[in-house]
TrEMBL record:
GO CC annotations, alphabetized: mitochondrion
Protein name: Proline dehydrogenase
Regions of compositional bias (Low complexity) in chain numbering: 22-42
Gene: LOC107486532
EC class name: oxidoreductase
Amino acid sequence: MATRVIPPRILRNLRYNTATKPLASSHPSSLSPTLSPPCLSDPKPPSQTVLRPALDPSALDFNDVQSLFSYVPTSNLLRSTAVLHATAVEPMVDLGMWIMRSKLFEVEGVKDVILAAIRNTFYGHFCAGEDAVTAGKSIRALNDAGLRGMLVYGVEDAHDNEGCDRNLKCFLHTVDVSRSLPPSSVSFVIVKITAICPMSLLERLSDLLRWQQKDPSFNLPWKQDSFPLFSDSTPLYHTRKRPEALTPQEESDLELAMQRLNELSQKCVQANVPLLVDAEHTSVQPAIDYFTYNAAINHNKGESPIVFGTMQTYLKDAKERLLLATKAADKMGIPMGFKLVRGAYMSSERKLASSLGYASPIHNTIQDTHKCFNDCSSFLLEKVANGPGGLVLATHNIESGKLAAAKAHEIGIGKVNHKLEFAQLLGMSEALSYGLSNAGFQVSKYMPFGPVETVMPYLLRRAEENRGMLAASGFDRLLMRKELGRRLKAALGV
Ligand SMILES: Cc1cc2nc3c(=O)[nH]c(=O)nc-3n(C[C@H](O)[C@H](O)[C@H](O)COP(=O)(O)OP(=O)(O)OC[C@H]3O[C@@H](n4cnc5c(N)ncnc54)[C@H](O)[C@@H]3O)c2cc1C
């Protein structure tokens, strides 16, 4: 819309300032790679490297929009502003969901039109590309601006072994893509356990694990090494009666699922890129954590985690589970990595708990969630500063970003030891991403890629889960508008 208002000649003349970031290596050569997570610590410089100022959280300055967006071309700023406006309007999200789920999407000609519209707007804004080549280009562009990419092949839940095998191929392919890109430009490869283990089996495993928590004498012959999955305060209402033992078929499916994660982890070890496991609904999270911790025990060696788990801090028991898991990892000498998020399944979690007549597992107030995120972040920052492990702070929350940046600065964590990565979704919170990067931290964007049709349901689900977050993009839009205004004035010479 805005491109029609501003003549193309002026658009071409709008300059974004590249002078604030002289080029040089962002990777100190004196680092011992063994002291840092692989890839987070890759000593080789990216294709075009950017010198950041010395770590300085006071540089987390959102007033200076010129340097904040100095790496963002005007065309991108315009599209971002337009798309973020659209996604901030709840009826737009509703309409998108409705179209995707309606019969319209099955009509051949109409489907092509809808896909083309999505490709040029939302998909183009929130996704890295339809194939490895385009995703690679997006990563390089991001890397040139000083950010890195977390690559996630956009697949949905699997319901049988064939679906899991298909999805595994996509995840293995993602590791190959990351290998083909400039060293350290891909910070993580992402996996969803619900894509490589059938959903019904994850539910069964979670039931069995929960029952063992209720009754420690309950025998699970298939269970291998893991860290604690529950704390004393973890709600166990999902499992109300003693579950049947796994059938031979289920045991064999479990074996296949473990092999899939093992193959993927092994490939990540070889490619020297960490694997980050996403967190999902509490109905299946015990099984997801079981897979994750078992893979971490088998593959995380020395000081550097290969397999990272995710902790959802909107859950009341998050802090306790985090303490238990990190304590067990320390005791076993396993370097553990965690991604901290607030959590994306709030409404379905609340609905499920209330339908079963239980209190919600989510903190009663948003302030409690903020506190839990910030406390867990502070705990893990201190932990990785004093020992092995890695931490990803995945948030768009400005206050959490500022607090963590100040704490990291205080205890001396930043680019210099590569144990901390901030992360935001691609197309979201550009101000926070560039602000943290300008202040000298490592920052990644979570970048789904794959064919539009495959990735869109995933993106729309994310949009639905994150309505509040999209509506909260107002801060970003405000700063982008300010910078667009500045560039326009500069181009017009006023
Ligand atoms: C890189 C990245 C990876 C992610 N991976 C995952 C993942 O693996 N699993 C997952 O579940 N999510 C994941 N998310 C999504 C994340 O959990 C959040 O949904 C999203 O980032 C918004 O939280 P925020 O930290 O950005 O904070 P904010 O922008 O401050 O958003 C806070 C949101 O939290 C919600 N909220 C939480 N607790 C409460 C409460 N008690 N009362 C009211 N509202 C509450 C509200 O909807 C509010 O909008 C990821 C996000 C990013 C950026």
